[in-house]
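User: Can you model how flavin mononucleotide sits in this protein?
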Amino acid sequence: MKNILILNGSPSGDQGNCAVWIKLIKKHLGSEAVTEVVHLSKGTALAKKKIVLADGVIFVTGTYWDSWGSPLQKFFEDSTDLEGTAALMGKPAAVFVLMHSVGGKGILSRLQGVLSTLGFLIPPMCGMVYSLVSDVALKSKNSHAKDFWQKEDISLILKNFLKACDLEIQWAVWPVDKKNPQRRWLK
Ligand SMILES: Cc1cc2nc3c(=O)[nH]c(=O)nc-3n(C[C@H](O)[C@H](O)[C@H](O)COP(=O)(O)O)c2cc1C
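Assistant: Here's the modeled complex, given as structure tokens:
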């Protein structure tokens, strides 16, 4: 049984839309995995601790002025020292982005880029954006519906994600400057 960590990057924590989405994810995972949810709005220390033992990590965030949630950004800033370590290397990541209408796909792509650079494994078809616009549009029957990301896609994304959690690959790690990344370089 895999240990899956779900990180909520929303500033609204367990009260927001991302928290509702996380309930859907947990429903789809059912008994296929042991899940633990950390709302990053409450702080990043717990997530940093839990990520070490997780077999895979699911990131959930809304779109806020074209960016992911500030708690998720804080997590990246606080977790810079984990880059290329066993805590992250080759660990599969799935990404779910919510939005009202625009900006989410850019966030999904950039987020997957950041996660890959940190050392996470991004399996194929392991991320999606779901919008209020789609939620409204999908209420009416439409021949274009298949081309919209929809709630049901959670299931196939999780299938790919769990398959990737079974991979065992000895990845090479590029050298990372472990000195204080905050130190001044401008004289
Ligand atoms: C401060 C703020 C900024 C937002 N900016 C955008 C945006 O740029 N594009 C968009 O489509 N939705 C935007 N939204 C809508 C949220 O992304 C959307 O409601 C999401 O589901 C929020 O999840 P949450 O309730 O867990 O925070 C914004 C919402 C807030 C509160």
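A couple of observations from the model: The pocket of flavin mononucleotide is lined by residues 10-12, 16-18, 62-66, 98-103 (CB under 6 Å). The chain has one domain: 2-165.
User: Helpful, thanks.
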